[in-house]
Structures are given as structure tokens and as C-alpha cells.
Amino acid sequence: MSKKRIIFFGFGDVGGKCLKVLLNDPDSELVAIFTHDTDPHEKEWFETPEFIAKERNIPIFKPASLKALEWVKIVEDLNCDLILSLFYRNRIPLSIFSQAKLGAYNMHGSYLPTYRGRAPLNWAIINGEDFGGVSLHVLEEDFDTGDIVAQEKVMFGKDEYVGSIQPKITQAAVNVLKTSLPMLLSGKPHLTKQDASLATYFGKRTPEDGKLDFSKSARSQFNMVRALSHPFPGAWTSDLFSAKTIVWQAKVLDLESAFKETGIKKEILEKSKPAAIVSKTPLLVRCADDFLLIENCEDVKV
Questions:
Q1: Please, are residues 227 and 162 in contact by the beta-carbon 8 Å criterion?
Q2: Where are the alpha helices (H) located in the chain, listed in sequence order?
Q3: Cα–Cα distance between 230 and 222 in angstroms, integer?
């Protein structure tokens, strides 16, 4: 089989590691890389597709949008067989992805049809789910609606932080791509329709969405902390020491646990009101029900 010409659209750790899979595949030829710059609020904790592509002298494009006709023309001139979107953040229009002779496919960071849309892993942790996953599916004009080629579920514990879950998501994406690539290159993947009745959708998150609200349940705020902790920008509050305190690590304690772990008198704990700082050393905050022990935080300038 002659090598198939592939255009890669992607970013992040998943994008970088999946790009390496494609570069090491003997039947694939990468003819162009479409990617992004890191957002100002993000930490660059991964090997970017751009860095990897530069080492291989692959053409790199970083358009803010793909709406302009020039990008349709560029893709047309590349004469691709396959388009793969691997954690690419921009919408790829039909005028571009329909040009791939063998089809266009997207890797989504959830176990579809649940958690369509942006930031699926963060949302799943915030909502207290016990699993996430990845799904490789047919690229369509609507986000994350296409037939599924393959998917892998990733389990995580109720107290597990995103920093230990994210590598599992990345490895699952690599596994799915390796398994599916021969089918995609043959043009004959096995497809399974999504059950639209089970679909859920969540939107893009910004740093402002990470503001903690201690008047809500302790578990809900702990989930926010663990969902947005390293390598993400972190959950934050303006109710502790300064205009902005990032909370990196915390623990939920009921009344008895709070007494045993902190030594604070039960009368004080019982009389505390939601959103009140019960103690600064250790840093203990009363929420709507239980307490949140803040174990690692950082004051930042705004």
C-alpha cells in the first residue's frame, strides 16, 4: 500500500503523542500540521505538535480561524487522503474536512455520547463522575456527533486529581489511534452510531469559571479543586487572604473528621456558618454541609 497523505489538526499532550504515532507509522505521510499557540493562562506542560513537526520539517500552520477561503485552497493543494483532528480547538469547516478522500475523524476526550463539547475531562471531574474516556469518531459539522470508530473508557477515583487522570486519557487516545489507524488508512473503518438520547453537552471553560463558592457543598468545591489543579490553572477564591488565592489541594471533612484532624473544638465547628473561615492554621473553611481543609494554596497577583 502506498503511503496515505495525512493532514494533522491537533494540540496538547494528546495531540503531541498521537502525532508521534502517525510519524512512526510506515503507511502514513504527514503533509501538514495545523495547531495553536499555548493560551496565555496555560502552562506548557507537554511536548507541542509544533515542536515535534519542526524537527521533521513538516509544514506548520497556526490560523486563528479556518473560515477564510485561503485555508480551503491550501488544503485542496495538499491533496490529502485523511484528515485527523486530535484535540484541535478550532472548528474545522465542511469545506475543509470534506476534501479528505478517506474521510475525516476527530478524537474527543470523553466516552461519547456523554460530555460532548469543550473541556470534557474537567467537567466530568467537576460533576463527580467516576470515569471519562476518549472516542474517535467521524468528523461532522456539529461537535462530537459523528459515528464512533473506537473508544476507550478511563476510570478514576472519587478523590483522584486531574494531574493523575490526564496521562491516562492521553494513553487511551494513543491506544485508540494505534488500533484504528489501519482501518482508517484502508478507508473501511467499522462505525457505530451514537445514541443521541444519551448525549450531554458542556461548554468551554475559562479561568473565571474556576471560582470557588464555599456556600455550596464541600464535595462540589473539592471536585472543582481536583478538576482544575495542576497542570491546569487552578480553582480560586477571593474569600481567603487576598484578591485571588489559587487552591491546589484540599480535603473534605465531616464534623467528626474535622475535629480529629484539626483539633478545633466541636462547639466552634458546629456554630460555624457556610462560607466562614473556621481556622487559618490549619486552613479550614465551612461549606454548606461539611468542611474543606485547604492543604495547598497560593496567593497570586491580579
A1: yes
A2: 12-23, 49-55, 69-78, 94-97, 120-126, 162-186, 218-228, 255-262, 266-271
A3: 14
Phi-psi region for residue 11, left (φ > 0), alpha (ψ -120 to 50) or beta? beta
| Statement: residue 40 has pLDDT above 70 | no
pTM: 0.93
CA angle (154 as vertex; 150, 158 as ends), nearest 5: 155
The secondary structure of 184-225 as a DSSP string is: HHHT----B---GGG--EE----GGGGB--TTS-HHHHHHHH
Contacts of 296 (CB under 8 A, 6+ apart): 247, 248, 249, 250
Nearest to 136 by CA among 103, 90, 105: 105
- pLDDT classification of 42: cutoffs 50, 70, 90: low
Give the pLDDT of residue 242.
Answer: 74
User: Is the predicted pLDDT of residue 44 greater than 70, yes or no?
Assistant: no
Q: What is the pLDDT of residues 104-126, one digit of tens each?
A: 999 999 999 999 999 999 999 99
Secondary structure letter of residue 297 according to DSSP: E
Q: Can you read off the three cell numbers belonging to residue 194? A: 451514537
**Nearest by Cα to 139 from 102, 176, 165:** 102
Looking at the DSSP bridge assignments, the partners of residue 292 are 252, 285
Q: Residue 288 carries which DSSP code?
A: S
Judged against a pLDDT cut of 70, whether residue 41 lies above it is answered with no
